[in-house]
Amino acid sequence: MRRELPRIDDDFAGRAVRVAGALAEHFPAPEISPLLEEFLNHDDVADDAAFELGMLTLRQAFTTDTLDHARPLLLKAREYLRDAYCDEERSDAAAFGTALDAVLAYSSGGIISDDTLRQLQDEILDIRLNLFRLPPGWRTPRLDTLNA
Fold first, then answer.
1. CA-CA to 1 of 20 to 30 Å: which in 23, 99, 111, 138?
2. Are 94 and 108 in contact (CB under 8 A)?
3. What are the pLDDT digits (tens) for 78-97?
């Protein structure tokens, strides 16, 4: 697939990024990350590729043994999510980024402000409205768990 990237059209690129993201959720294939990184150079799907890389890096962080190992991965995931949202193409990246900011603050001994919670509630509502009538997945935040 990586060899064919220069010749693929935008539609195929979009599908390839979604499939790579779905594969990354279920299989620890080391080839997925470099493939997604190449899609960062494909303008029409760069936001999606950054989002998938952010989610992949976030999952890697959550499977580490210690916070010291997780923290650099959390920061890297945050960068990818920031890139995914920079053009406001991926509103879900904003919600995951805000949640990740809260986790990073809490893990450093900080508190999560009411403003951050309100922002997260608004961003989650935005995701849920954009996904109205679509089947839920692990990336679909539940509003009833926000205060937990």
1. 138
2. no
3. 999 999 998 777 878 888 89
Beta carbons of 55 and 22 less than 8 angstroms apart: no
Is 32 in contact with 18 (CB distance < 8 Å)? Answer: no
Per-residue DSSP letter, 136: P
Query: Which tokens hold the place of 4?
Result: 């064919």
Nearest CA to 90 out of 130, 62, 58 is that of 130
Q: Cα(126)–Cα(92) distance, rounded to whole angstroms?
A: 8
Q: What is the pLDDT of residues 10-61, one digit of tens each?
A: 888 888 898 899 888 888 888 899 999 999 988 889 999 999 999 999 999 9
Task: Retrieve residue 90's tokens.
Answer: 């991926």
DSSP 133: T
pTM over 0.85: no
Q: Which residues of 4-13 are buried (b: 16+ CB within 10 A; e: fewer)?
A: eeeebeeeeb
